[in-house]
Amino acid sequence: MIKQIYSLIQYDESVKTMEAGADNIGLVPMQHGGVPAHRVPLDRVDKIFAEAKRRGVTSVAIMLTNDPEEMLQLAERIQPDILHIAGDGYAADAEFAKRLKKVAPHTELMQAVLVDGEGAIARAKSFAPFVDYILLDSGLAPDTGIGASGVTHDWNIDAKIVKEVNVPVIEAGGMGPDNVAEAIEKIRPYGVDSLTKTSIKYEGGNMEKDIPKVKAFCEAADAAAKKLGL
Ligand SMILES: O=C(O)c1ccccc1N[C@@H]1O[C@H](COP(=O)(O)O)[C@@H](O)[C@H]1O
């Protein structure tokens, strides 16, 4: 079971998050869009992703800008393992996937799908022919895009998507140590993702990872997957 942990900001907390069991680490490289306090300067992104590579941890860069040209420039500059598109006004298409391969040949593509009703099933299916992963998430906010809501959505829809879409699915949205096992049992995803419930949030939008909670999340996910033989 892949455990994907967002949103890393500092180098030290990134190292501790990897040590706590994260398989994928996600962050917001400096760009137009997203929560300002979460944006990471590119020289620090390089340092964090180099350490991830050294440890065999997958690096994920989330795109909250709605400008595909800015996304491609960032992908070319950063060369993340996965580019995660989650803006409120632009979603990946086949042409974008082709262009991404040209500028970042080793970068895989992950598209966030807002699960706001049964219509999410058709949306997820429409991305499947050209993305490497689908991430199912909750909450759409102007400027900050799909996710970071800290709330769950209808897991029955997610379970249908996992069965019907032939692409690995990462489950996100309000996931934490308290509910990750239940989500895995119900949805049977390829991976699970957590931000809010494994972070300490401060006034003004600043936050840091809560390392004991990251560890508890990873352990609970692994135990649930083992129990189910996943
Ligand atoms: O990571 C961010 O800063 C971010 C900002 C804006 C939208 C999405 C973002 N991250 C993604 O949202 C999920 C779910 O968050 P939560 O656990 O419900 O709070 C997060 O893990 C990222 O995939």
Automatic annotation (TrEMBL):
Q: Which domain of life is it from?
A: Bacteria
Q: What is an example of a GO molecular function annotated in this UniProt entry?
A: phosphoribosylanthranilate isomerase activity
Q: What EC class does the entry list?
A: isomerase
Matches recorded under Gene3D superfamilies: Aldolase class I
Q: In which family does this protein belong, per the annotation?
A: Belongs to the TrpF family.
- CDD domains xref list: PRAI
What HAMAP family does this protein map onto?
PRAI (MF_00135)
Give yes or no: UniProt keyword Isomerase: yes
Name the reaction it catalyses: N-(5-phospho-beta-D-ribosyl)anthranilate = 1-(2-carboxyphenylamino)-1-deoxy-D-ribulose 5-phosphate
Keyword Amino-acid biosynthesis on entry: yes
Q: InterPro entries recorded for this chain?
A: Aldolase_TIM, PRAI_dom, RibuloseP-bd_barrel, TrpF_fam
What's its EC?
A: 5.3.1.24
Instruction: Quote the protein name from its UniProt record.
Output: N-(5'-phosphoribosyl)anthranilate isomerase
Q: Which organism is it from?
A: Levilactobacillus paucivorans
